[in-house]
Amino acid sequence: MTVLVITGTGTEVGKTVVTAAVAATARAAGRSVAVLKAAQTGVRPDEPGDAAEVARLAGAVTTAELARYPEPLAPATAARRAGRAPVHPHEIADAAAKLAAEHDLVLVEGAGGLLVRFDAAGGTLADAARLLSAPVLVVAPAGLGTLNTTELTARELRSRGLDLAGIVIGSWPAAPDLAARCNLADLPDVAGAPLLGSVPAGSGGLSPAAFRSAAPQWLAPRLDGTWDAEAFRVREAPPAS
C-alpha cells in the first residue's frame, strides 16, 4: 500500500501512537514515510500537534498538517467557531497523493472517528479514503464497549465500498480484564477483518529510541512488524469458565 488512512472508533483511543508505531515500523523496514494530519484541533499555533508527536516518536518522517483550529472540537465545528476555512475531503486526498509521489508510505491520520465532519457539507475521512482508493486501518480500545463501535465502523466502511485493512488495539493494558481478553477473539469476528497489532498502554511515554526499537513487535507482518495475533491471543486468553 502507498497510502493508509488511520481512523479510530472514537476519540482518545490511541490513534496518534498507533500512527507513530506504523511509521516507525515502516522506517525500520527501509521505507520512506510521510504523515498527514488532516485537521488538528485543540492545539495552539505554537504547540506541537499530532503530526509532530508522530515524528518525535517515529523519527525521520515527513509531516504535513492541512489546518489547525484552537478548540478541541470536531473539525467542522472548530473551523466554524474560529471563523476559518474548513478542510474538505478532496484537499486531504490531493495532499496525500502529492506526498505519495515522493514517499513509499503515506499515513493519513483523521480526527476522532470515521464520520467526524470536516466541513459544512458533511465531508468525512471516509470520503477522503474513497477519493484515494486507500485502505483504512481502525484503531480500537481494548475493553468493554469496543465491540459495538468497532462493528459500526466496519459496517460503515463496507457500506461505502472501502477496504478495511484491519484493527489495531490502541492501548493494551498491563493487567487486562476479562472483557479485554475476550475481545481478542471477538474483535476480528465483529469487524470481519484481522487484528493487525496491539500497542501496550503507555507506549507514547517511552523514549523515542525505545519506542522505535519496540514498535515492530506491536504490529503484524502486513504492517511490516513481527506481532503474531494468534500467539498473542493464546497468551492473553481468559481462563475457561
TrEMBL record:
One of its GO terms (molecular function) is dethiobiotin synthase activity. It comes from Streptomyces purpurascens. Pfam families: AAA_26. Its EC number is 6.3.3.3. The active site is at K37. Keywords: ATP-binding, Biotin biosynthesis, Cytoplasm, Ligase, Magnesium, Metal-binding, Nucleotide-binding. InterPro entries: DTB_synth_BioD, P-loop_NTPase. Mg(2+) binds at T16, D50, E109. NCBIfam families: bioD. Pathway: Cofactor biosynthesis; biotin biosynthesis; biotin from 7,8-diaminononanoate: step 1/2. CDD domains: DTBS. This is ATP-dependent dethiobiotin synthetase BioD. Its cofactor is Mg(2+). Catalyzes a mechanistically unusual reaction, the ATP-dependent insertion of CO2 between the N7 and N8 nitrogen atoms of 7,8-diaminopelargonic acid (DAPA, also called 7,8-diammoniononanoate) to form a ureido ring. Its main location: cytoplasm. It catalyses: (7R,8S)-7,8-diammoniononanoate + CO2 + ATP = (4R,5S)-dethiobiotin + ADP + phosphate + 3 H(+). Belongs to the dethiobiotin synthetase family. Substrate binds at T41. The keyword Ligase applies. Homodimer. ATP binds at E12, V13, G14, K15, T16, V17, D50, E109, G110, A111, G112, G170, S171. It is found in: Cytoplasm. The gene is bioD.
